Recover the amino acids of this structure.
């Protein structure tokens, strides 16, 4: 059997290639960078461990656990500490714990009495027409009010997408919220009633999903995938295009049975595909990826006044800080800092402040130190810092994004054997990308099986 070409060596491409390999389907993976893994990379400097990009995987699907098991990593998997469940939102320039129970919600100073009373009306608000596309800001103002937008959704959107709630589409970026309103006519009722449906599908909501990493960071996952694929990976190779060849595709001088594009949208847009799909592939370059900087800082424990007793904190735009939020990394997982020290990971830039990541790493670290000091207290003398800048970080599922998904769907329909997967289509989280790669492998296997069966029938009839 001719191999399947996987173009893109991020977590989506690696997962798809590994899944196909385990099912006895040969693969060839090409990556333009000198290493695979994309934004997933961990470094250890002394007893500090820093992640370049994501810090954890939300275990929302059984497919994620299957990948860990199949790679033999169950013994190296670690779950976040129980003490890391608390989440903070900054209000009045101080971190305030998000309420976790109805009683805590009634007592929290995070929302005013009028905002809490406004929530009582939510079950009685009619849903928007099913075909209407709203921004997440419009959606939340209509259902929950301005204060919930300012101090719940605005910081959450910054923490997840590094995005702008006035531009992100609720249908495209938060499809489950849109579906809850349409099906149950209420977010509150839908959250309760929808839990049963999620259990039946074997899924867990992102809010309740376990957070996992590995003893030496997320790099462990990439190293295991790379080790398994070994000879099938070609790094530092730039694929410019592909050509249809009989019932397969010609890629980098090799004939392949199918092609999976596991690339950022702007890289897909530049590919020369012959014959060209009817879809407007070049339009994928219009998907916006704002720049984001990750700043990992280490401090002596006594130099940080806040107890860091939680997952981290989100920073609403109204509070006027530069950082979008911070993870309490050494609380989240063990062995992230030396004894008597802590690590905090901050994010800056995004759609809120796209100019910030143009600054030097030293300037970005100084901005993060200043904000942490103002919010958490202390934080004046970091003992460790590591800065990573992504010029194009996270695809924004803004209003109108559906046209881009339609282009990717059309590519698969009109170019037999060509498949698309990854964060530009199937969700931006690390878990979403793993699931996307696994499901792409399933689609490719079904396509190859169908083609093989058809060839066998033709041969038999002849």
């Amino acid at each position: 059997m001719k191999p399947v070409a996987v173009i893109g060596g991020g977590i989506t491409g690696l997962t798809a290639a590994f899944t196909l390999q385990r099912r006895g389907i040969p693969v060839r993976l090409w990556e333009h960078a000198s290493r695979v893994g994309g934004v997933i990379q961990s470094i250890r400097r002394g007893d500090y461990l820093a992640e370049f990009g994501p810090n954890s995987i939300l275990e929302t699907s059984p497919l994620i656990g299957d990948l860990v098991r199949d790679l033999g990593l169950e013994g190296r998997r670690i779950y976040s500490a129980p003490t890391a469940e608390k989440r903070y939102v900054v209000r009045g320039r101080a971190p305030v714990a998000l309420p976790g129970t109805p009683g805590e919600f009634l007592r929290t100073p995070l929302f005013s009495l009028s905002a809490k009373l406004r929530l009582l009306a939510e079950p009685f608000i009619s849903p928007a027409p099913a075909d209407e596309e709203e921004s997440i800001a419009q959606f939340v103002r209509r259902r929950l009010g301005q204060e919930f937008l300012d101090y719940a959704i605005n910081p959450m959107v910054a923490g997840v997408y590094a995005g702008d709630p006035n531009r992100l589409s609720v249908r495209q970026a938060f499809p489950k919220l849109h579906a809850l309103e349409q099906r149950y006519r209420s977010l509150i009722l839908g959250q309760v009633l929808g839990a049963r449906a999620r259990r039946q599908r074997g899924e867990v909501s992102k809010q309740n999903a376990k957070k996992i990493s590995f003893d030496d960071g997320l790099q462990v996952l990439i190293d295991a995938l790379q080790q398994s694929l070994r000879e099938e990976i070609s790094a530092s190779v730039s694929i410019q295009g592909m050509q249809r060849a009989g019932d397969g595709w010609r890629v980098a001088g090799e004939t392949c049975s199918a092609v999976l594009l596991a690339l950022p949208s702007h890289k897909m847009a530049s590919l020369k595909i012959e014959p060209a799909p009817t879809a407007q592939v070049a339009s994928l370059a219009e998907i916006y990826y704002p720049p984001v900087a990750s700043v990992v800082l280490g401090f002596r424990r006594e130099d940080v006044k806040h107890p860091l007793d939680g997952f981290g904190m989100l920073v609403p735009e109204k509070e006027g800080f530069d950082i979008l939020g911070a993870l309490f990394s050494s609380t989240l997982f063990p062995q992230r800092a030396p004894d008597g020290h802590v690590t905090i990971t901050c994010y800056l830039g995004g759609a809120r402040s796209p100019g910030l990541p143009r600054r030097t790493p030293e300037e970005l670290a100084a901005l993060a130190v200043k904000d942490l000091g103002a919010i958490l207290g202390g934080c004046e003398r970091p003992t460790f810092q590591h800065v990573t800048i992504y010029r194009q970080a996270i695809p924004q599922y803004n209003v109108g994004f559906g046209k881009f998904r339609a282009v990717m769907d059309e590519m698969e329909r009109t170019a037999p054997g060509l498949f698309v997967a990854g964060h530009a289509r199937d969700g931006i989280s690390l878990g979403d990308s793993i699931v996307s790669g696994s499901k792409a492998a399933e689609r490719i296997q079904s396509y190859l099986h169908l083609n093989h069966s058809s060839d066998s029938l033709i041969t038999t009839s002849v």
